[in-house]
Amino acid sequence: MATETQLMPVEAPATGRTIDEVAVAGAAEVAELAARARTAQVAWRERSFRERTAVLDAARRWLARNADRMRETICRETGKTDDDAQLEIAVALQSFAFWSKRSERYLAEERFRTWAPMVLGRKVTVRYDPYGLVGVIGPWNYPLVNAFCDCVPALMAGNAVLLKPSEVTPLTALLTAEMLAESGMPEGVFTVVNGGRETGEAVVDAVDYVMFTGSTATGQAVMRRAADTVTPVSLELGGKDAMIVCADANLERAANAAAFSALCNSGQVCISVERIYVEDAIYDRFVARLGEIVQGLRQGEAGGPGSVEVGAITHPPQIEIIERHVRDALDKGARAVTGGARRSGPGRFFEPTVLADVDHSMSCMTEETFGPTIPVMRVADVDEAIRLANDSPYGLQGSVFTSDAAKGEAIARRMECGAVCVNDALVNYMVFDAPMGGWKTSGIGSRHGAGGIRKYCRTQTILGTGPQLKRDVHHFPYSPRVSKLLAGFVGRLYGR
After folding, report:
1. pLDDT at 488 over 90
2. Beta carbons of 230 and 210 less than 8 angstroms apart
3. What is the three-state SS of 24-36?
4. For residue 4, pLDDT beyond 80
5. pLDDT digits (tens, 9 = 90+) for 428-464
6. Which of 97, 154, 217, 451 is the most exposed place for a label (fewest CB within 10 A)?
7. For all residues of the chain together, what is the average pLDDT?
8. CA nearest 165: which of 179, 181, 177?
9. CB count, 10 Å around CB of 281?
10. Given this structure, which CATH class describes domain 241-433?
């Protein structure tokens, strides 16, 4: 008797209405799809980089042609604005172009002669071999960029991929499957499996490598489960990214950058500015200007490019966290310069909020909020700002604003996080040549750069042949005379 297919509803956060239903893949189905993917991967791996690139380039062109359709799908299931969705598409197009251009170079075999005395001059080859089957478990905030785009280098390396999108935003992933199928991707090489926790656990059990983006708590659970099969993982987790505004900063630029970097995608960005430390000399002026900018922003359902700046809260439990953080801050003496409450009416919206006079006794400064709030704290000097910025279990990104470029870079080097922007924020994500990853509990490994594709491969070192002697000096049997000669040689070589 056939098992009845379980369906999962998809909600539009901006309206609260159910817009679709998708089939859930249970553990048995995931295992079956994984087996098919492994079979398909064998032929995909044998294709040349040029052949793989042809498929991904066709997908890039498909995305460019179907940008409106992709944007509408993203907006409907995430509640983000048209412009936030368009930015996501632009980054995805860049991802395709970057990996098509760089993958072969990053994975080229490395050849050199070793200087190690016992094998002096032998040829060494280091090669990169795809793991086979990669599982990508994506988040709900960026269903294209932070879910599908992690699949692109994995595919270019010669792997098959199982993509498990967030159960909150499955429609974008299904559209990417259509995109790749129409672009010539062989059947079985890329597969979307929808579902919740059980589906995610099945993916971790079935694959050779896991790429996860999401909360620190869920990342820890993924890591624990992967440990049972000694499956390697790469984790991009939570953040509480700090901005430091020095007294000599360009105040207008800093305020505009703060508003955008904290409220882009309604603050639902892993690298959002989540807390700001401002030197006392300009604190009041900065808060006032930031409040003016934020108060003028429009919020609502996506209504076309340029229609609104701030969208909805995608994941239902998230708005409860945002409300709790704001209420806690206000109860402890902070003041809402603007905003501060959930918006009434249909859909899930929280007002863009600037909180002034905050401190580290408040959860809005110590816990990840992931919403449209900007807490601003007064500090005496840069040293205090750096100390407070580093007083966090997170270490994803940071930013510093100052008119002195050298000073800005010096401050950046003291911040304990994976990336720091000077007089900017967020935009380092666009630098695909450089690694993007977190310190502390913000993750393990990185995306982008050479490491962003090499992580999807095992390395193999091949040591070439040497002189074909009957017996090397270090072979059995040992003798006192030879052992003393070898010990003396090592001592003279390394003991000087």
Report:
1. yes
2. no
3. CCCHHHHHHHHHH
4. no
5. 999 999 999 999 999 999 999 999 999 999 999 999 9
6. 217
7. 97
8. 177
9. 13
10. alpha beta
Q: Is the pLDDT of residue 408 over 80?
A: yes
For residue 352, give every residue at least 6 positions away whose Cβ sits within 8 Å of its Cβ, in sequence order, or none: 263, 294, 297, 299, 310, 338, 339, 372
Reported as a single tens digit per residue, the pLDDT across 53-85 is 999 999 999 999 999 999 999 999 999 999 999
Residue ranges of the chain assigned to CATH 3.40.605.10: 7-237+447-458
Active site residue 236: yes
Contact 375, 275 (CB under 8 A): yes
Over the stretch 11-31, which tens digit does the pLDDT of each residue have? 999 999 999 999 999 999 999
Position 89 confidence tier, pLDDT thresholds 50, 70, 90: very high
Which strand (E) or helix (H) includes residue 246?
Answer: none
Q: Is 351 helix (H, G, I), strand (E, B) or coil?
A: coil
Does the model's pTM come out above 0.90? Answer: yes
Ranges of CATH 3.40.309.10 domains, the chain:
241-433
Give the C-alpha separation, 235 to 372, whole Å.
Answer: 24
Residue 5 reports pLDDT greater than 90? no
- Residue 155 burial (10 A CB sphere; 0-12, 13-18, 19+): buried
CATH class held by domain 7-237+447-458 = alpha beta
The span from the CA of 236 to the CA of 212, in Å, is 6
Q: What is the pLDDT of residue 1?
A: 42
Under 8 Å between Cβ of 168 and 140: yes
d(CA 212, CA 375): 28
| Annotated active-site residue in 201, 236, 274, 309 | 236
CB-based burial of residue 235 (10 Å sphere; 0-12 exposed, 13-18 middle, 19+ buried)? buried
Q: Can you tell me the distance from the alpha carbon of 275 to that of 239, in angstroms, rounded to the nearest whole number?
A: 11
How many beta carbons lie within 10 A of that of residue 484, not counting itself?
10
